[in-house]
Amino acid sequence: MEAQACRVLTPLGDGGGHMVWHGWKPADGKAHGLPLVLLHGGSGSWTHWLRAIEPLVQAGHALWLPDLPGFGDSDLVPGGTDADSMLAPLARGIRQLLGDCAGGPVCDLVGFSFGGMTAGMLAAEYPSLARRLVLVGAPGMGLSDGRAVRLKGWRHLATTDAQMQAHRYNLQALMLHDAALIDDATLALHAHNVARDRLPRRRLSQTDILARALARIPGPVAAIYGEHDPLYAGRMQALQEKLMLQTGGRVHWQEIPGAGHWVQHEKPRAFAAALLAALAHPAHQGRQP
Q1: CB-CB contact of 134 with 219 (8 Å)
Q2: Which residues pair with 20 in a beta bridge?
Q3: Residue 118 near residue 68, CB atoms below 8 Å
Q4: pTM for the full model?
Q5: What single DSSP character describes residue 201?
Q6: Are 175 and 262 in contact (CB under 8 A)?
Q7: Which end of the chain has fewer CB atoms < 10 Å from its terminal CB, N or C?
Q8: Which residues form the AB hydrolase-1 domain (predicted)?
Q9: 175, 263 contact by CB (below 8 A)
Q10: Domains, the chain, ranges and CATH?
Q11: CB-hemisphere CA count at 13 Å for 282?
């Protein structure tokens, strides 16, 4: 899949460093609608979207997937410790790739988990950038109540086998509802991604920063969550209500049955169908003054 992509570097800013982007377009070169910019989750890379790329491209969409700063192959923003340091580099990169927004929004913005929180903050800070925001398993809604999914540390473990056992446990605890889907390829992909995480102490996802950002976004918002997402265990109804409240009732909500947190990997066909439905959903009107 990577061999089929266009690879582009965009600058992080005056402090140096670059963000790595991978782009795909339909085989006939004729994309439907605006390009999709897809932001991956924490401790991940563009490969969080690996199983969604082909169905979205086949549906006629052009895609741009970055490795967020501090993850994957992208450099770390100097002094950056969390999503708030990524907003300006992301806006700069999107404008370099897709245009300066003078003629209107240049993309539809989709974010998974940490990337969903980041996408919401980005859409609020740069409202002319994206036509539509789609949240996928995003935290930052202020519903954690101090509860968190407990993951096992692995960097201190002496053997690869012990590290892989910890990775398998973490995938089941947080990412995938069906443990049978944690095959060798998924395990290797996860291990490759978490080893390149240079932002281990980020904390914004435990706040209500996304909820507050949603109140500032004038355009349409959609949300796609797995039925068994452990970030919202027993609180899915509360999440839906909070999303509605913060957007003035403008959220197009979809729940993927049988899926956990990493919905686009666990249920790629159902996720692609849900995302295409979200993109086709009529835009709600902006907030009334």
Answers
A1: no
A2: 9
A3: yes
A4: 0.96
A5: T
A6: yes
A7: C
A8: 36-274
A9: no
A10: 2-149+203-280 (3.40.50.1820)
A11: 2
In contact, 223 and 192? CB cutoff 8 Å:
no
Question: 3-class DSSP state for residue 117?
Answer: helix
Per-residue pLDDT tens digits for 182-196: 999 999 999 999 999
* Pairing mode of beta strands 63-66, 18-24: antiparallel
In this structure, what are the phi and psi dihedrals at residue 255, rounded to the nearest 5 degrees? -120, 130
DSSP state of 253: E
**Number of Cβ within a 10 Å radius of residue 237:** 9
User: Which DSSP state fits 204?
Assistant: G
Show the DSSP H helices in 59-129 as ranges.
87-98, 114-125
Which amino acid belongs to residue 195? A
Quote the CA–CA distance of 148 and 53 in Å, as a whole number: 30
Tokens 């782009």, residue?
A: 23
Rg of the chain, C-alpha, whole Å: 18
Token readout for 220 is: 């349409």
DSSP H or E run through 269: helix 268-280
Give the tens place of pLDDT for each residue, 44-95: 999 999 999 999 999 999 999 999 999 999 999 999 999 999 999 999 999 9
- Distances from the Cα of 108 to the Cα of 129, 133, 256, 282, angstroms: 9, 6, 21, 14
Could you give the CA distance from residue 137 to residue 114 in angstroms, rounded to a whole number? 9
Burial string for 147-182 (b: 16+ CB within 10 Å, else e) reads eeeeeeebeeeeeeeebbebbbbbbbbbbbbeeebb
Name the residue with tokens 């935290």: 139
